[in-house]
């Protein structure tokens, strides 16, 4: 019998004896394994383990990879007191939980839309462009770009200017419209004298006034050089008559 046998479970008491008097002969100072700390708890004791160890006497190393904290197919490597994740391509973060956004670098050109995929991306190209990064701008002014019609983009000798995903027509004087298909109506501005002309005839990039009797000129405004045109203001429904007098007679 050992004095104080009832207290052999106390860390304070058993520090001065050996476990050979109890069970296996291990010194009580080494009762807790792997640098664990022995602490009293009433009539018994327990071991406070260092990080990475577990068990009644800290005899087992904790497997931080069980269960696996790494996500998205990442490989877990266990080490004392921690772990590390080896992410598969396309993921990052401590646990490989975050997907890498390959579109963040804005790889698509000419207004292309980037679609983020796992470890890659895809560019959705606008009309008139092609290539992996939409880097090729097709010539929309080429008639062959529209195989259904195969006709010039701009009519009436309009000049075609290629743009990304389209074109623009620079029209010659006298023509308007998206494709220079419309002839400008110069008569809409009423260029002819309302008294000296009875009709405006539209021409290509021009017009012609049909003059009333006694009027001449492009706009039917001036009278004939050797005559004087006198207009009498008409009232009460009287007819207005143009009188022509020779300057010699005056």
UniProtKB/TrEMBL annotation:
Q: Name one Pfam family in it.
A: EGF
Q: Name one GO cellular component term.
A: cell surface
Q: Which residues form the EGF-like domain?
A: 24-59, 61-97, 99-135, 137-181, 183-221
> What is this entry's stated membrane topology?
Single-pass type I membrane protein
Indicate the principal place this protein occupies in or around the cell.
membrane
One GO term under biological process is: axon guidance
Q: Does the keyword Cytoplasm apply?
A: no
Q: Where in the cell is it found?
A: Membrane
SUPFAM superfamilies from the xrefs? EGF/Laminin (SSF57196), Growth factor receptor domain (SSF57184)
One Gene Ontology MF term: calcium ion binding
Q: Which InterPro entries match?
A: EGF (IPR000742), EGF-like_Ca-bd_dom (IPR001881), EGF-type_Asp/Asn_hydroxyl_site (IPR000152), EGF_Ca-bd_CS (IPR018097), Growth_fac_rcpt_cys_sf (IPR009030), Notch/Slit_guidance (IPR051355), NOTCH1_EGF-like (IPR049883)
- List UniProt keywords, sorted A-Z: Developmental protein, Disulfide bond, EGF-like domain, Glycoprotein, Membrane, Notch signaling pathway, Repeat, Signal, Transmembrane, Transmembrane helix
Q: Which Cys-Cys disulphide bridges does the record give?
A: 49-58, 87-96, 125-134, 171-180, 192-209
Stated name of the protein? Neurogenic locus notch 1
Q: Which organism is it from?
A: Liparis tanakae (Tanaka's snailfish)
Query: The organism's lineage?
Result: Eukaryota, Metazoa, Chordata, Craniata, Vertebrata
